[in-house]
Amino acid sequence: MSLSKQARSIAPSPTFALNEKASILRARGEPVIHLGIGEPKNPTPINAILNSSALLRVGEVKYSRVDGTPSLKKAIIRYTEENYGRVPAPENIIVTTGAKQSLFNILYTLVNPQDEVILLAPYWVSYPEMVKMCYGVPVVVTPEDGTFYHRMEDIEEAVSSYTKAIIVNSPNNPSGAMYPEDFIAELVDFCERRGIYLICDDIYHKLVFDDKTWTPAYQFTQRSIDESHLIVVNGVSKAYGMTGFRIGWVIASRRLVEVMTNVQAQMTSNPSTLLQAAAEGALLGPQNVIENLRLTIQNNRDVVLTELKAFSNVRVIPPDGTFYVLPDFRAYDGNSTRLAEFLLEKALVVTVPGAAFGLEGYLRLSFAGSAKDLIEGIRRMRWALDPTAPNEIYIGDRKLVRDWM
Fold this sequence. Notes:
The protein has 13 helices and 14 strands. The protein is α/β, with parallel strands linked by helices. A hairpin with a 2-residue loop joins strand 13 (392-395) and strand 14. Helix 5 crosses helix 9 and helix 11 runs parallel beside helix 13 (371-385).
């Protein structure tokens, strides 16, 4: 079989193999705890259900405009004005099948072969693969001080004549770090001066903890949306817990949106009309659903931090937002893939290897699930790894003895 070199170069999902193993174990009745999935457990907002079911009742679920329904665009304009202090025109917006397609559309529109896109490690797993799918070159910048916060001088040093864009995800998946305002201001100024696109993946911007304030990059430029090099990505998946609805959007210059619309027209056409109606309902309905979710997630974050303190050799930087934490497990094993496999085999706990995010030796833990699962999952992990933990544990109805230390 002759396969495309480009397709064969794309790395598999880092969670796929572990999820497959976990599914097999669960099918056998094993009490697997999944700390790998970034999916809140809240119910879908009622306004999203009502708005989409209204279409179903009349049977009016047909094609819509490729770039999104006018009514959803109106809701996005309102959302952008309230959260970003900018009022985009409908021509500045394209609605996509999830924020992931937003990012791919942007890169496909911007990147020529061998163009470089700067990624700030730790980065979301799909960024480098998307860049490579567009025949670009991912350039990774990693903090040298062991934190998740970058210095502008390191980014400037990584920029070359081939640099087309920088992707910034704040709050960040997988670390939960939110970049300081002065860093974002410097980044915006640098990109505007150098003619580099700054792609802001803001999908977690509502899930911020400890009374901290998220500030949009638009605050640091006087340029209009059409003149600016800022591109904003957002969606309903995280803040509203609507992960399965797959509705995202891009705010960008009219010219970029026009080309992205042409790209999308040849790939997927319009996002689901039904699900666009659901997203519209969420954006225009009561917004207390976001705060309720945020408070639940912050409580889970605090539970995770408390439980991780019991480890004797794990370094943790408390997340500012999202529903992820990225502890440093290098004291136990510098190979995060091997470590994740070990924890699944011995403790029946699913984690995500840090290598997939550009930081080897770390593990991403999601605290989007129940506090009960978080406590039990981390207790099992400590039993499997930490010599100071009790030597025996009950997992399900079985008593296990640690015999590998």
